[in-house]
């Protein structure tokens, strides 16, 4: 088999810095030249189960993706001793066969760490991960508790969706957090521990019955709460920067507490129990000019044959009502 090299080199004299071997179906890297100039190595979607020891000598390496391979815990264990690549900034182990968090404590400059789509039951060991981390992805695992995250003062994105979490906790030190993704868990109550800078929150497909708990998130721009058991819109009036609100597939009977939201552009209300459009103009008074998208299908109120016309009159700049697009 011919040696595999980086196909994109800026000129004939510059050694390649990026090697992308995505979807080459490799079982090993024996046929690959791993040049010392590499700063990024992408091995996504192969058949690898062990680490090539030559990676340990790539002293310039900043990004390493082992996504969608066959690595188990023993297969990634050598990483914990590879001090030559200790300046690694991005490590992706997504979609493998891990049953615990690997020891990545030697990477003191780590910015992105992704272990989503594995079989990890606990965040134990996360306290050893560098406090330089800005993005942490642990979605689609078996995690039951939010723990060992207190030291991530620089963290901007936390993804823990599709786990077995019941309680929102230990968030109080994440003062720089911008995005929190907790969809598809078992959370019953909103507890954001005073996160005032956060801009995106997803709690879709949980067990919420109330919206109370977002009042201090004054910087919030996007809020996703679909597929819960919420019966009343409340606790939203202080969220003056909100642009996207998704409360579809809940138990709402009316629209309320959003009349002061002047920046609202997208409003998802479909699959609820809203009986009438009476009073909707007052309920959304602040966003009548700004709103461009509204979903309200599969509510009793759409049985009126003129409901689309009514909504277009209320929202003069609307571009989409349900699946209907307008110029």
From TrEMBL:
The keyword Repeat applies. InterPro entries: Leu-rich_rpt (IPR001611), Leu-rich_rpt_4 (IPR025875), Leu-rich_rpt_typical-subtyp (IPR003591), LRR_dom_sf (IPR032675). It comes from the Eukaryota. Keywords: Leucine-rich repeat, Repeat. PROSITE patterns: LRR. GO terms for biological process: defense response; response to other organism. PANTHER family: NISCHARIN RELATED (PTHR15454), PROTEIN PHOSPHATASE 1 REGULATORY SUBUNIT 7-RELATED (PTHR15454:SF56). This is Protein phosphatase 1 regulatory subunit pprA.
């Amino acid at each position: 088999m011919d040696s595999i090299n980086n196909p994109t080199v800026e000129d004939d004299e510059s050694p390649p810095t990026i090697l992308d071997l995505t979807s080459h179906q490799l079982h090993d890297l024996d046929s690959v030249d791993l040049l010392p100039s590499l700063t990024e190595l992408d091995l996504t979607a192969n058949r690898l189960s062990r680490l090539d020891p030559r990676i340990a000598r790539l002293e310039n390496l900043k990004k390493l993706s082992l996504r969608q391979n066959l690595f188990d815990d023993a297969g990634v264990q050598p990483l914990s001793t590879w001090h030559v690549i200790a300046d690694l900034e991005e490590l992706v182990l997504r979609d493998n066969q891990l049953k615990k968090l690997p020891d990545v404590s030697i990477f003191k400059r780590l910015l992105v760490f992704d272990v989503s789509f594995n079989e990890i039951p606990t965040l134990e060991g996360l306290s050893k991960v560098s406090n330089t981390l800005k993005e942490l992805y642990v979605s689609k695992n078996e995690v039951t508790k939010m723990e060992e995250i207190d030291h991530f003062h620089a963290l901007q994105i936390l993804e823990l969706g599709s786990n077995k979490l019941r309680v929102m906790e230990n968030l109080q030190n994440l003062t720089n957090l911008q995005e929190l993704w907790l969809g598809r868990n078992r959370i019953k109550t909103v507890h954001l521990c005073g996160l005032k800078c956060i801009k995106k929150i997803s709690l879709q497909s949980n067990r919420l019955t109330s919206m109370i708990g977002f009042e201090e998130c004054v910087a919030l721009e996007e809020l996703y709460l679909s597929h819960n058991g919420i019966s009343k819109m409340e606790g939203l009036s202080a969220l003056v920067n909100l642009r996207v609100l998704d409360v579809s597939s809940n138990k709402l009977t009316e629209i309320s507490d959003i009349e002061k939201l002047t920046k609202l552009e997208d409003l998802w209300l479909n699959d609820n129990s809203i009986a009438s459009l009476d009073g909707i103009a007052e309920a959304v008074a602040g966003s009548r000019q700004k709103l461009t998208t509204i979903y309200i299908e599969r509510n009793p109120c759409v049985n009126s044959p003129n409901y689309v016309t009514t909504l277009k009159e209320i929202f003069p700049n609307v571009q989409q009502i349900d699946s209907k697009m307008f110029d």
